[in-house]
User: What shape does this take?
Amino acid sequence: MTRTPWFPAGQAARDCHVVVIGAGIAGASVARSLAERGFAVQVLERHALPAQEASGNPAGIVLPVLSRTGNALSHLTRLGMAYAQQRMSALMQDDMRVDWQPSGVLRLARNPRHAAQQEKIAAQWDFPADFARWVSAEEGTALVGVPVEQPGWWFAGGGSVCPPALVRALLQHEGIALHTGIEVGQLRREADEWSVLDTHGTVLARSENVILANAYDALHLLPDEYAQALPLAAIRGQISLASVSSDAQAWTRLHAVACREGYVIPERDGQVCFGASFAHQANGREPSEAEHQGNIERLQAIFPQAKSLHPAQLAGRVSYRCATPDRVPMLGPLHDALSFRERFAHLHLGGTAQRFSMADVLPGLWLNLGHGARGLVWAGVLGEALACMISGETQPLPQDLIHALHPARFDYRLMRTAPAHRKAWVVAEEAE
Assistant: This one.
């Protein structure tokens, strides 16, 4: 195995108690994976109920990402898809309600050039038909049940799920204790364990291992020098909800999820969900008319026949995605950013890994952050991977993917760059 001193592995747990901060899809998934291994897991959530942030939308899509190069993003989503399908099937077999609708997902080409690129990917990779296949506009129309004008990818194993229902099902395990209405204000290292304190300084829990799965809020629990090593961004997203009535337009009767630069999810509980906006440097929780209008335009790019919609007719919900500059989550131990930058200060000059000693970590402090818009696909397999790190089990992910996910990767890339050319990280806009 290639030596990589800049990606420290962290230490397996010595006891069977873990604290997870955050009860969204990331926190619930890793809590479930740990509980199934016999760990006693405390989940601390600041809201009165779980799944109140980005995991709180009434519907979300499950589909992979494809690329011409088979990069970390596409590799992770393919593994994540398989695991998500298995997990939801297992939960339903246990009579748990997750509202999983495996309708398939049609992802349309953005334009003729994009269609040509995607057709090359289809020819190059020759994916199994039950995973992904390229279809004409005519076949796409038949699959979705509403006319479309572009060819696209058909993901037969994709679909939609109710994220809050999935989170609740994951947390239903005898090894998980959920504590809601708990505002964590500080982490303190004492002897060989972490103390988790509330905003008044009262100790809420103590554990050798703590997992931060609370998205962008994790940065508020870390000293500035460590938070600055984690280039996370909170990206506002607004979904729109249209009521379905007996005289509703035909596009509301779609049979499967349809995507282009936005998405449309088949009717659930009398509403069709579509979206979503992607707003940098935005704040607030109230839906805006401008973002509803943007969602209408995304909808019409999928179904041009979706006419006569006005923002005033729509309900909506706003949440904030936690994203990274390379769109890949952060998973693994938190490195000691101060000693890391000292140790690898000359990395930009070159040389082999043998020149450097292994980077230090903050013992027992783990991250599961930055899932962006794809937490429903990634959270399950990442929860398994992190549970394996903590338990010392064999990893379900290959080593190169573990490195691609490592929280230290941004400091590593920074140290490889000559000081005069180092720039601040930027999280770019992406389509859903």
Remarks:
- The first strand starts at residue 17 and ends at 21.
